[in-house]
Amino acid sequence: MGEPDRVEPPDSVDPVSAEPVDPDEPRRYPSTLGGGFYLVVLGVVGFALVLVSLGEWRNGIRLFGGSLLLAAAVRLVLPTRNAGMLAVRHKVLDALILLALGGSLIFLAGSIPDQPGAF
């Protein structure tokens, strides 16, 4: 029994896209409303991480969690075709994961007691 014949892929395959693409039209960034909210959430998370690194960890983690809650609300409101990078799985599953993570971060930031001698 020999090895099966190899099938070579075609040289050119058209890209698969949800929207028709006009090569003469300039690209708009972000191309969806959800993409804009994604960039806002990403910016807030970056700022929250700066706060954490400066020693304001509790406020930074609360801000991080709040941005995830904002992302969950936006994911629930926007239709899937406009959700951009906020859409990973089914709408409800995406929102539940973001709600669980954001709520957990806010809860943990509030429930961890202050350490003696900490500033």
**Alpha carbon gap, first and last residue:** 74 Å
Structure classification: mainly alpha
Q: Report the order of strands and helices.
A: HHH
Radius of gyration: 22 Å
Amount of helix: 40-55%
The residue-averaged pLDDT reads 85
The low-confidence parts are none
User: What is the strand content?
Assistant: under 5%
Number-wise, the strands total 0
Give an overview in words.
The chain is mainly α and 119 residues long. It has a domain at 33-110. The protein contains 3 helices and no strands. The protein has helices at residues 33-53, 57-77, 91-111.
Q: How is this fold's topology laid out?
A:
Blueprint: H1 33-53, H2 57-77, H3 91-111
Helix pairs in contact: 1-2, 2-3
Would you summarize the structure shown here?
This protein is 53% helix and 0% strand.
Attribute tags:
53% helix; mainly alpha; 119 residues
